[in-house]
Every structure is written in C-alpha cells, then in structure tokens.
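Full entry
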Amino acid sequence: MDKKPVQIKTASYKVENEITLLVGESNYKTASSYSILLKKSNSSTFDFIVDRGQITIDGNVPDTKFLSISDHYFNCLFPIHFLLTNGSLIVANFSEINDRIIQKDKELKSNFSGDGIDYISTSFLAKTNSEEKLQDFISSLNLVNAILLSLQKFNRKENINWYILPICNTSWQGISDFDATDNSFEYNAKMEMDSEFINELRPFATDNYSEFDFTNSFEFLSEIRHKTEYIDESLKFRIASTHIHLKFNDFEYNEAFIIKSKTAN
C-alpha cells in the first residue's frame, strides 16, 4: 500500500518563473507570475486540489490575441484534483476538466475565427482529448513537477521531469536529502542526456538563430537544484525554489521557478 503523506493544509502561494535563454548571439528573457491555491481534500477520491489565478507575463496580463486565447484554454485545466500514488500525482477529475475544455472550445470558436484559433484549438485538444493524454500533459507542467518535488519530504522520488521551454520535456536523475534539523528538503540532479533532446534542440536552434555552432564535441552541462523550506511538520512550506541550468556550446538555459507562501514570514 502506498504510504500517504501528512494531509496537505490549505494555503495560498505566489509563483515566480524567470527564464533566460541564450542561443548564439541572441538572447531571450521572460518572467511570469501567478497565484496558486493548494487546498486540502475532504474527499476519499483525491488528496488535494491545485487552482491557479491570473497569469502575468513580463508584468502584463496576456494582451495579444494568440496569448489570450492560449491562456483561456490553459485555464480550463484548473482546478485540478490530485491523488498522490507511489510518488506520482494522478489527475482525479478528468471528466470535469474535459467538460470545461469542450465548453471553452465552443465558446472561443464562436467569438474568434482564423488560423490562430484553429491552430491553438487543434494543438491543445490533441494533448488533452483522452485521460492518458491529459495525465501526460499535466504531469509535464513545471508547476506540477515543482509541487511534486515539494511533496518528497514524505515520499521521495529520485527521478523528475522538467520542460525546457520552448524545446521539449526532459528527464533528470539525482539524489535527495531531508534535513530534520531545519525542516528542509533538497534535491540535486543531472539531466539524463538522450537523443530526443539533441534532436529537438538542433532544429530549434538552426531555425531560429543563424549563427549557431552545433558541435557534438562540446561538453554538455546540466543541473537542477531544488530546496523546500517547510513551515511545520505538515507539508505546508514557506518557499520552494527550483533552479535549472543547461549549457551546450552556444546554447545556455537558466530558469528560476519559485513558489512562495503568501502568509508565512
């Protein structure tokens, strides 16, 4: 039987996500933020709920048609009911999420037309139109993986996935340690290099940046560092910070994904 963690207490957090991408002589930087609510469950069918507030990108709400429509679809995922099983987060309200997506898709297509809405709709529905696909999609979200790392105090997992924007999902393997003295959890990992990442990186780099030297002889550097500082003996935490660093020749990726309690000092 899977060992359940201490019940999650309801708490509000702010997520701050900053990404810096360097490819050749070109660089790209973006910062986003939004609120999330982790709510304890009174149901026997799932363990807790994650809900998300309005996102801002570089200080602004999505203000272009493409970003706004994309955000409308993405918002359909929330709230998500999760069951924690064998160190994984299983989506427990697929039917409810699916109904929201179908309704929002009809609503958006009645208000918008053109290649943009068709592309976003087709792409999003292809990733979410079955229970298995929806589970895979939600499991790939960096928010979900950051929360999963923060739950490792009681149910540890040495493997983690992280989506390297805007390239692909990646697998990492590392070591974790819980320090009972300061009530904190740390996880450090290296990326499991495989051909998929290189195959995705190569066309992305060459299609978007003309001056890019992609030589396989260069050393590939990767690091994930995660730390969660818990408030008490429950799973409520003060801050959970995840830092990602990748470097391969002319490609460098740095990301900070921070979840901060809105109430704890």
